[in-house]
Amino acid sequence: MASAFRLQCHCILIFLAALKGETRYLEARGAGEDEPFLLLSADLKRELSGRQLYHRALRCIDMLSVEGQFTFTAEQPQLHCAAFFIGDPEELITIDYDFVNIDCQGGDFLKVFDGWILKGEKFPSSLDHPLPTSERYIDFCESGNIRRSIRSSQNVAMIFFRVHEPGNGFTFTIKKNANLFPCNVISQTPTGRFTMVIPHQHRNCSFSIIYPVVIKISDLILGHLNSLHLKKPSTGCAGVGDFVELLGGTGLDPSKMFPLADLCQSFHGSAQMKIGCDNTVLRMVSSGKHINRVSFEYHQLDQYELENRKENSIEEFCFPSI
After folding, report:
1. Nearest 10 degrees: CA dihedral of 289, 295, 301, 307?
2. Is the separation of the CB atoms in 296 and 215 below 8 Å?
3. Rounded to an integer, what distance in angstroms lies between the CA atom of residue 307 and that of residue 317?
4. Measured between alpha carbons, how far is 12 from 15 in angstroms, rounded to an integer?
5. Alpha carbon distance 212, 210 (integer Å)
6. pLDDT of amino acid 217
7. Of 13, 36, 142, 211, whose Cβ has the fewest other Cβ atoms within 10 Å?
8. Ramachandran class of 68: left when φ > 0, alpha when ψ lies in -120 to 50, beta otherwise
């Protein structure tokens, strides 16, 4: 039932341990491209709050969820490296280059990507991000001192880098900024609640939960009033400018996921669905003519819930062998 995508994403998001002290963190010695990334625990975040700037070395494959200054120094040629950054839903991420010593002419590179890429799939998708894909990459070797500070458009970002010469590397500082109207979000946790608001903006927003979940929508205001349409070829919210859809799949990119249900009328109450997919996305499409809002909560399906399927359940699509 567990897929390679789920293993990779869960390694990113739930590689949690009992971390104590500022400098004690999980070591991933010799980490390869598909090995676990580090996500610092909530306990460490609380310990770091209010203290001096946090410092530590950056690994070739890494995961950062706290503010601080991070330094990468190559001990040997490092040709396939990436660091993933994630904040809370209401946060944007700023990357400030403090020091860079790489050989751009010799094949080194250092690139920021506005979002995440995993196995060729992007979040946010090209349909949901305000910039074309080519502009989401910021290459230090091309921009240099022109772009030494880069801010993400959502709560996730990442860097790709290659350093051939031992001793070369770079230092950057991660800061987080408030985002009054979060749009595209990857949840750090398998349980939570969130309210998404799109105020008179023509845009699409996706909230991604990289777990099989029960999702309960408690309030939906679309500006035009109680229905949940299970997806069929001839039904749904086609032609409606403002709606919410639930998506499920095994990858990161919402545009490549399977549409499971539409909600295209406002309601106050409850619409609940059990989705047993590796990745569940709630996506709001907004015409810009209204103030649209959706409130929902979610929790990860346990094994009992996965094995005891009932009505209004979608896990058969994701796990056809069950």
Report:
1. -70
2. yes
3. 14
4. 6
5. 7
6. 95
7. 142
8. left
CA distances from 192 to 187, 274, 304 (A): 8, 15, 20
Residue with tokens 């910021």: 138
- Contact of 45 with 68, CB cutoff 8 Å: no
> For 234-257, what is each residue's pLDDT tens digit?
456 767 789 999 999 999 999 999
Region(s) of the chain under CATH 2.60.120.290: 42-178, 187-225+238-307
Judge whether 57 and 169 are in contact, CB under 8 Å.
no
Q: What is the mean pLDDT of each run of 10 residues along the chain (322 residues)?
A: 52 37 30 37 49 90 96 96 97 96 96 94 94 93 82 97 97 96 94 95 95 93 60 61 93 94 89 91 93 95 68 50 31
**Tens of pLDDT, residues 288-306:** 998 999 999 999 998 766 6
> Angle at the Cα of 239 (from 181 to 235), degrees rounded to 5?
110
pTM of the model: 0.79
Tell which CATH architecture fits domain 42-178. Answer: Sandwich (2.60)
Query: Between 3.20.20.70, 3.40.50.2300, 2.10.109.10, 2.60.120.290, what CATH number should domain 187-225+238-307 receive?
Result: 2.60.120.290
Q: What is the pLDDT of residue 148?
A: 86
> DSSP letters along 254-273, please?
GGGSEEEEEE-S-EEEEEEE
Token pair of 32 as six digits:
């390869």
Which of 187, 230, 156, 201 lies closest to 293 in space, CA to CA? Answer: 201
**Ranges assigned E (strand) in 114-181:** 116-118, 121-123, 137-139, 149-151, 156-163, 169-178
> What is the distance between the terminal CA atoms of the chain, rounded to a whole angstrom?
9
